[in-house]
Amino acid sequence: MWLQRLQDLAYDLDDLLDELATEALRRRLMMAQPTQAGNPSMFRNLIPACFSTNFSPRAVQFDFNISSEIDNITERLEDLLKQKSGLNLMSDHLGGTSSRRTGEERPPSTSLVDEYSGFYGREKDKQAILAQMCLGSESSSNRRLRVIPIVGMGGIGKTTLAQQIYNDEEVKNSFDLKAWICVSDEFDELAITERIYKQISSESCEFKDLEKVQVKLREIISKKKFLLILDDVWNEKYGKWDVLSRPFQAGAPGSTVIVTTRNVSVASIMRSVPDYYLDQLGNEKICSILAHHARGWQNFDAHPGFKETGEAIAKKCKGLPLAAKSLGGLLRTKGNPNEWKDVLDSKIWDLPTENNDILPALRLSYQHLPSHLKRLFAYCSLFPKDYEFDKHELVLLWMAEGFLRPSETHREMEDVGFQCFDELSSRSFFQCSKTGAESRFLMHDLLNDLARHVAGRVCFRLEDKTESNVQHRRDSLLKARHSSFIRHEFDGSQRFEAFSRVRKLRTFLPLPVFKTPPTWQNFYLTNQVVNDMMPQLHFLRVLSLSGYNILQLPNAIRNLKHLRYLNVSATTIEQLPESVGELHNLQTLLLRDCQSLTKLPTDTRNLINLRHLDIAGTGKLQEMPLGLCKIDSLQTLSKIVLGRGLKVNELRGLLNLRGALSITGLHNVMDAQDAREANLTCKQGLEELEMVWSSDFDHSRNEMIEKEVIELLKPSTNLRRLKVEHYGGVVFPSWLGDPSFSQLAHISLSDCRHCTSLPSLGHLPSLKKLRISGIQGVKTVGNELCGIDWPHVRDAFPSLETLEFVDMVSWEEWSTNLSEDDGNFRQMFPRLRELIIAGCPNLINISLLRLPSIIILKIMSCDAIKSSESCMCKSRA
């Protein structure tokens, strides 16, 4: 209870400091504001800053209120200090990250294996590891020491797999010496070396000096083939491993060290072969493990009274053998199926501690985290089970909550966040999504339970919408600082009644935080919540209303002066209130797929902390505030609309831009030098660029200016995606196709109807997908597409996998004019898997060389191609 009060005080103090900093920023900005004439007020210049700001009615009221709050904080702090003395509490100056200090130390493992191997379920993994060990293979002599890391989350079965390998008959016959060492928390080079020596020599070590022990160990293993298992390793310091491993180099070729660890960083300093990642077991195997440890059965098939509940409990284990074994142990004395249901309905921290190793095993990973990573992990308790979250999305939330700080190396907060995310991922707290999306992740169900356990009452997940459930959880919610909930088709005020009493709430987060939901129009949030409740939550730092069918935000949103993150993506909102421009602390403003949005706040001068503005998918947005491009902290600006006063050269000051940028309205650029001043070449963080002119090719268009503009808008060579749409010039820019764009993987050239030839793109080493559509001036395609001098390079389009030609109405012929007998012949399209030609009515002849990798070939709406003789595409397809 004392710690909870201390935690509440820490949050309140943090809010107080933020309030002071925000007011100081407001006063500075007010002093810097010009008058209507455009110059600072002459009268204001005659008054010292302390008088002109501190004696306004608003400032006087603020100072009075803040003084009262400071007195209250001080009184609470003094009271806690008195209670601390009375409870005899002492600070742990060691930091508390070691498992030995928390009582969560894992029991040591041994090499003995469970003889009941029928439910083991790791035979494929075992064979894969044995294959890496190259037992009996001549290739093993090529490597003096092989280090194989087995990596996976706690309880996944790493130790069990290592035991199976250690006791395998073929392994026993392949090594002269073997040793099993459970390392666990303390990586003491001397102690570990002594234990290895004792196991291999069967003698106690009489030396207590690392140098002497290592010399003796080296003598014993010299020219002998040995197997060493280092189980449960946590050490991330390469120097310690380097010292420990020095005697191992004396072993015979084929000597192997197998390391089990939860941390990829540990594996990276030790491995000599790629890590072996251990996945969860299938549910059928988990059922077998549970049935064996609970009742001694092979499965539940012959026991219908237990089958449904037993299989449900097995699903709860989510492929974790330790969970199945531990729950089986708890169920061993419970012969009634109803008692099994109690276990099914329990949280892992509510289960009896007897024979329950799940929470201690998982908490061990948590206890080894540095303190700054602990709260980042606990915050993820806001996500429901099986929720697939986006890496970038989570980092923005962490940043808004104040969990991230710029590093001493002056790295951006986002980079610090990505490093923290990668570290949690490397420690098996996050898992990559099975969908294949690189930035999508999820948490194992039991780790999700652990996050909720360690977060305590600070994070609250509103999972039920009925009033009775809200009433039942009101006590928990009253002290909550962060809240999330699953969005319903209609969310009325009754569901959020308890929130009206939570004045210190920092996070209001509907889930999923999607970007392009297919049915976003079907979710409704009552206006009472938006207009009445929201403005009363003065301490909100994260506010998301994404996906709701809401038309507007109230002007009272200016009251949310702590707000850092505002997400109204995929809503029906038409314009933002001008008061949004008063949110001085706002870092992230997400408006993606607001298809009705027509206007942003006109005055954005005070949004000096804005770092991310996502307005992609806002087709009706035709103008942007003039001062927006003066916010030099901007990193994300997904779209800029030129015209009505906003010029492309205003991009010059946005040196920190990252990710994707769409420049629309390029037909409004009248002076090509504005494009030069935009200085896109220096924006190294830009990875995706879209250049869009008007689709109306009228007489106002100037082909020469457009040609010069696109030439001067040369982006950084870090570009990965490029789209050019409605360009009106005759030729494409000279930089398009330059091999220095070595990371460019996707190109789309659309409706550039006046161009008479295609750019030379064959030299781009990473280009995987190329789409060319609506280029009406092209009649023939020849070697120029591959590059004028392409026969003198090894391959043309070496990485291209997909090639599309669409709506090329004037196109008549595609020919390389080369044969395989030509002495200058080089491979063309060596990896092309899919070729699509559609809507090219005048195309008569396709004469290409062999396409060795083609799988899909589609030729549609190309009426001029009458027979196979006119389509000489020599391929295996």
UniProtKB/TrEMBL annotation:
Belongs to the disease resistance NB-LRR family. Residues 91-112 are annotated as: Disordered. Residues 144-272 form the NB-ARC domain. GO terms for molecular function: ADP binding; ATP binding. Residues 649-774 form the R13L1/DRL21-like LRR repeat region domain. This is Disease resistance RPP13-like protein 1. Keywords: ATP-binding, Leucine-rich repeat, Nucleotide-binding, Plant defense, Repeat. It holds the Pfam family LRR_R13L1-DRL21. It comes from the Eukaryota. Residues 382-451 form the Disease resistance protein winged helix domain. One of its GO terms (biological process) is defense response to virus. The keyword Repeat applies.
